[in-house]
Design a protein that fits this description.
It is a single chain. The chain has a single domain, classed as ABC transporter involved in vitamin B12 uptake, BtuC (Orthogonal Bundle), CATH 1.10.3470. Helices cover about 75% and strands about 5% of the residues. The two termini are about 20 Å apart. InterPro entries: ABC_transp_permease (IPR001851). It holds the Pfam family BPD_transp_2.
Length: about 325
């Protein structure tokens, strides 16, 4: 029993558990291990994976962001509309990244400086930003005028689509930030004990603001790639993304109580979410049942987080 508990709760144990589950799925689900399906699976988790990089930092600092789905959709709309209006894809991409960063910065200022609860603040931002996306497009999808925009999603490097490479690069960058920089160490310290961090000289308000600004920037990158992939700016895109991202992070060992996070764990959590959806599609399971499975995964993630927190507290 203790060995099983260690496998479920430990970071290395999570990887082992994932490897076992992957092997079982590979042996039992037809066409799962084909190159086409593997690349499709990785492409399907690009949006979740990219946004999870900074959601990990939000959760680790004892915050969270419910507005990520709306920010992804809004940033994709800005990228497409600005590119169409200026005739320049570069200007469109820059406009989208600025827009996403401003949304994140707004969240950070409201939450960190004005001390509004993160749940209420990001819930409000989620509605506001989704509304802006709908207003700017009159509730309709906006087509891309320049076909070169599609190459952001269609281009490949060594046979692997560019969005997957971007996701991998962001995994590496934010893994380094979390484990090897003062910024990452301060993020975990704030999540562990904000008051002790403040007394130790950490500017908690500034740190939390920067984390949300980074969240907005990364959402913009995800929004640009999503718009290129679906060949238009969709005001209703990425609905429910926030729940999938939080589920992936918590499944990967990021604590909802703050102070604990692992990039490797987040990667495993993202892959678990992707594989679950991929297997359901391969087995032709109706979309209605997929909602139930996603809900159960979220519930399992929260239960595991509670179990990990209780175990750590007991050891302490």
């Amino acid at each position: 029993m203790n060995a099983l508990k260690k496998i479920l709760l430990g970071e290395q144990g999570l990887v082992v558990l994932f490897a076992v589950a992957f092997a079982i799925v590979a042996l039992t689900v037809p066409n799962f291990l084909t190159e086409r399906n593997m690349l499709g699976l990785l492409q399907s988790v690009v949006t979740i994976g990219i946004v999870a990089c900074t959601m990990m930092l939000c959760l680790a600092s004892r915050d969270f962001d419910l507005s990520v789905g709306s920010t992804v959709a809004f940033s994709g709309m800005v990228a497409v509309m600005a590119s169409n209006a200026t005739g320049s894809i570069v200007l469109g991409l820059l406009a989208a990244m600025v827009a996403g960063s401003l949304v994140g910065l707004f969240n950070g200022i409201v939450i960190a400086r004005f001390r509004v609860n993160a749940l209420i603040a990001t819930l409000a931002t989620m509605q506001i930003v989704r509304g802006l996306a709908l207003i700017s497009s009159d509730g309709r999808a906006v087509g891309i005028n320049d076909p070169s925009f599609y190459q952001l999603a269609l281009s490949k490097f060594f046979g692997i689509p560019t969005p997957i490479w971007i996701m991998v690069i962001l995994f590496i960058v934010f893994g380094f930030v979390l484990n090897r920089t003062v910024f990452g160490k301060n993020t975990l310290a704030i999540g562990g004990n904000p008051e002790a961090s403040r007394l130790a000289g950490v500017n908690v308000t500034s740190m939390r603001t920067w984390i949300f600004a980074l969240q907005g920037l990364v959402c913009a990158i995800a929004g640009i790639l999503l718009a290129a992939r679906i060949t238009s700016g969709q005001p209703n895109a990425a609905t429910g993304l926030e729940l999938s991202v939080i589920s992936a992070c918590v499944l990967g060992g990021v604590s909802l109580a703050g102070g604990r996070a692992s990039m490797m764990g987040v990667i495993v959590g993202v892959l678990i979410m992707g594989i679950a959806e991929n297997v359901m599609n391969l087995l032709n399971i109706q979309a209605f049942y997929q909602y139930v499975v996603r809900g159960l995964i979220l519930l399992l993630a929260v239960l595991l987080d509670n179990l990990r927190s209780s175990t750590i507290a007991y050891r302490g």
